[in-house]
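Here is an idea for our session: we take a single protein and study its fold together. Start from the sequence, derive the C-alpha cells from it, and show both lines together. Once you have written the record down, we can walk along the chain together:
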Amino acid sequence: MSLSPCLLMVAPNGARRVYHDHPAIPLTPEELARDAQECLAAGASAMHVHVREAGGRHLLDAGAYRDAISAIKETVGDQLLLQVTSEAGGRYSPSEQRDVMEALQPGYVSIAVREWFGDAHEVQASGELCRYLASCGTHIQYIVYSPEDLTHFNHLREQGDVPNGPAFLLFVLGRYVDPPIADPSRLPGFLQALMAGDHWVVCAFGPTEGDCLALAAQQGGHTRVGFENNLWRSDGQLATNNAELVAATKARIEATGRRVMNASEARRFLALTTAANTGVTL
C-alpha cells in the first residue's frame, strides 16, 4: 500500500524577523511573490503568509493581505495554496484579530488557540467567528504550542466553542530563544493528546527543524518549513533562502517513502473552497 502524500508548507517571513536577520527574508508583496515562485519550484505545496508595514512591522490588514495575495497569484497562479495568519505579534488584541479576519474572510487561516481562546472572556466571540468563517468556507488551522494547548482545544471542541469535526492543527516545537533549538522528542507529547481523525503539521525552531519535520513525516503528519521559525541548515550554517529549506524538507519527506502533495491535492485534502468576498481562491 502506498503511503499518503505529505503537505509541505513554507512560512517565509513570520511576524518578527527583518532584513537584519537575513537579507533574503521576503517582506513586501513583490518579495513574497518571488519567494513563492522559488519555493514552488523547490517543492512547496502551500505558503503561510504574513504581511508587514513599510518599516517591516507586523501587520494585520485585509487590504494588505489582498495586495500580497494578488502579487503572489500573479506569479504562481493557483499552484500554491495560500494561508494567512491571524497572529497577534505582540501588537493586536483578540478583538482586533477577529475584526481583520471577519473583513478578509480568507480561504485558509491559522489561529493560535492561546491568543483567541486563552482568556475565558474571549471564548464566546472567538468561537462565534470561527463557526461563521467555517460556514463561509474558510478552513481554519489551529496552532498549539504545547500538549496542554491541544488538550484545551479538545475541550473547546467538546463544549461546542469551535466547529465540530476533524481539525487541522499546527504543533509548534521550540520558541523564540537564543539559540532557538527545537527538540524532536517533544512531538510524542502532542501525539498522545491528538484526537482520532485530526490532521497535523509540525513547525520547529532552529537548525533541528529538519530532524523535527522528518519525524513528523515518518509519523504520518505534515510539514511547515521556513524563515519564520528557522534560518539555518541542519549543519548550523545560514540557509541561502527559503527555497533551500523547502528543497531539503522535500528530500526528507521522500526519504520516508511519502511524496509531497501539489496544491490541487492539498485543496482536496483540506476540502478548501473559494473564500467569500475576497475575490480570490486561496
Observations:
- The first helix runs from residue 29 to 42.
- The chain has a mean pLDDT of 94.
